[in-house]
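[SOLVED] Need 3D model of a two-part complex

Original post:
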Amino acid sequence: MTATGHSPLAPAAGTSIPPGTRIVVIGGGMTGHRFAARMQAQDPTGDWSLTVIGEETQQPYDRVHLSDWFGHRRAEMLHLATGVWDDPRITLVTGDAAESLDRAAHTVTCASGTVHEYDRLVLATGSWAWAPRAEGKDLPGSFSYRTVEDVESLAAWVAERGERLGRPVSGVVVGGGVLGLEAAAALQGLGAEATVVEFADRLMAVQLDDGGGEMLRLLIEDKGIEVRTGVGATAFRPAEDGAMGTAELTDGSEIPADVVVFSTGIRPRDRIGREAGLAVGERGGIVVGESCQTSDPDIWAIGECASFDGVCAGLIAPGNDMADVVVDRFLGGTRTHQRAEDGTKLKGVGVDAAAFGDVNAMTPDALEVSFVDPVHRQYRKLVMSDDATTLLGGVFVGDISLYSQLRPLTGRALGADPSAVIAPEGGGDALAGAELPDDAVVCSCNNIAAGTIRHAVNEEGCHTVGAIKECTTAGTVCGSCVPTLTKLLNQELAKAGIEVSRALCEHFDHSRAELYKLVEEGGQETFTEVVAAHGTGAGRGCAVCRPTVASILSSLGALTGRRHNPVGRQLGSLQDTNDHVMANIQKDGTYSVIPAMPAGEVTPEKLLVFAQVAKDYGLYVKVNGAQRIGMFGARLEQLPEIWERLVEAGFESGHAYGKSLRMVKSCLGTNWCRYGVGDSTSMAVHLERRYRGLRSPHKIKIGVSGCARECAEAQAKDVGVIATHRGWNLYVGGNGGAQPAHGKLLVEDLDDETLQRCIDRFLILYIREADKLQRTARWVEEYPGGIDELRRVVVEDSLGIGEELEAAMQRHTDTYVDEWAEAVQDPERRAKFVSFINAPDLHDKTLRYVLEREQVRPARPEDDPATTFPTPLAAKEHALAGAAHISQEDQ
Amino acid sequence: MTAPADALVPICPLESLAPERGAAALLPDGTQIAVFLLDDGSVRAVQQHDPYSGANILSRGLVGTHLLAGEGEEPGRIVPTLSSPMYKQSWDLDTGAVLDSGGGEKLPIAVFAAEVRDGVVHVDPAPRPEPAPTPRGGTA
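Solution:
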């Protein structure tokens, strides 16, 4: 390792880049994006230009979550924050590879012939997927697993091959590391059979010890993926049509291989630097020191292409840190790159495995403490210093709940008896009081230490995990540290005596969840009883607590079978006008009428009745976002007569006015769609019938898609269901709205019955535990223990309450009655729908309507009064009559 | 404060009102009002026009209470409240003063004297004088 001239290992003094500096970054991957984003954030007004040259046609995307592509099949959903490309100083070039570098001329030449001049060059070229030599390894049907293009062509190949062969496709993944297992799960998700071939004697050989590898094998095999360890692939033979057909293994066996994915490691892409004469490490990679400068003082290297201490990193965390170091140096700082102790977590496979530190106890005299339970498929091991005080490493398979707490303690005192920590019962309790030191790195992806999180809580006023994420960026990349963030937050708040008040309002000191539990146990059935038993004693409630109590009483009533009509006499005075009159108030005080239309299905006969009603009242008609048709502009006193006609035609309340199930959206599914894999429409109708009318902390939207194309946008719903070749995948906590969130995958490949059971459990937990007006997205995000814990409770029934929850939901379904059908039959209730209590024949004469696109809308102050009408019907009739003069009829 | 007894006009039978819920009504001059029956059996009347949304809807708002802090040594007192069904601003039903403007301008509402006579709700067709814009403000 000899460098010419400048020594890369001597930390360069920080010197700010001069005005007008032209920076060129070769590589449009995650590290290149990080560098650009960081430059922009750290120096928002600086005078420099920055060009990022990317070979891929995609904008920089989240390669860590590449497997998510199979869930949505939309590359743009993986794109990293795109705002950075709006900065006029920053240019992104995509689809053009940098071919050569002329250090003397300070230029980079691309495949297209374009020449980029630089003052400072940053190499962020990343890695390439290496594959072992083997005859036939490049036959059609051979893939890597590294880019969006790779996964797109893999999915297309499996679909096409399956159609051609008329049988399930056999897939072979060469390499049993983290990425190989992800690829195998992806193949399975595509409907292929998957076999993993690993040359080492265990899976995840680099990260796990023997015991962990063995447990992981059992879990992977449980998923129906075949595992072959201790063998390599020596040759690949074509099928009759010349495409990939079989694989020959080192033990002489031959296995079918219609598709092969190589995941056998990565090598740094250092060609461009090597050819330009930059110092290169023994095992490849551009040599850099702790400033990330290369042997050329004008060239820097970051990420997987850079060799630091003789090693090229293969994870995002060091790449991010290196990008941050170079930005700091460009802006005059003296930050240095240090290799932090990293852990590895398996993801995207549906099996939990994670490890950090000295997993094989290589430290002299290190002690290993382990817990092995092959029945429940759990393996936990801690590696401790010889005096059993300092934590050196850990391996977790099957249950990784301790991983995020323990990893930051690597090299530090554990502060508890290691065997108590990994014991099957109450393991985490042994660590309950333990505190992370300020400099312990909690989020290794973004290198955020515990002290930074504490500062955010105590000084910046971040009192939710979401606020901490926003303020510090911790937990925003892989998310594995979120449980630790939650714990730190709670510890800090408790220490500071900051009680984040979850009290509903001045009338109740309890949070909604607490009040729900109290009322459930206390059995109160009216607001008066609830406020007497649990209130602060100061009055009769308000616009916050009254609807909340109404929602709790309705939910409990339905789930216990002691059903109260949620809008009936008993709860009527607690409800917002929408719930009270079972319609949504519009800006002029009139209401909408939106009947249920499960899965968006409607017969022409019913549609005719709907149309006739809308016509008779002159109402505005629009299809809303929930696959339903609404009519707008009905006055309070018109609602019962409108609904009477709709109920008679077979329509039911759509609860568009309630904090309850709003809709189950679906695509066409197998009945009509030529791509459908599952009958999404029937499932949507089934789910809507089961959950309709159930009162909840906030509205609930469900989506069901019949295949991975996801036309129903189920992943943006509170509950998302997507058909697979083997059943249904269930997502939870998705949201559109102001704070969009992607649903998180809860469980895969469910049959109809199990799907319903999981949704039952999930929804009731949400109803029990969420805060007032908290959508599932935020509730899932803040669920203690994260999605993993939620999965244990909902899918694995770790609390043993599954049956109880399902029975409760069954009571709701059994006792459901249509609120509007009931109301139109009840003269006493109908009498409440009155314009003026002392003049029921008159109506609000200040209402005014104008015509727009042949329909009505409320008049605005700037509308010419001569063009307005007192009722929608008058306006419509005028339009139909084509009258030349505008008549001003009035009451 | 109470209007001369003969000025009040009958509106509706008390039994036609639901407890802690409102009803819209018309005064003889066509003014729209909102009438409320409270938990203690007393009645209130305010303007039906919501000054924030411009719609005639206040009868459809939620009734509740609020503990008004007392000045200095004075004990606080609980007042009946109304919140708008449109954007949730709230008012003191006794005075029409804004209790929660949702961060916006404070727009009070007119209050009409109301009482129950022989089971019939009566309302004064003339509103009470407007409340002072701030608690420590000058004379209304």
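Edit: The first strand of chain A starts at residue 21 and ends at 26.
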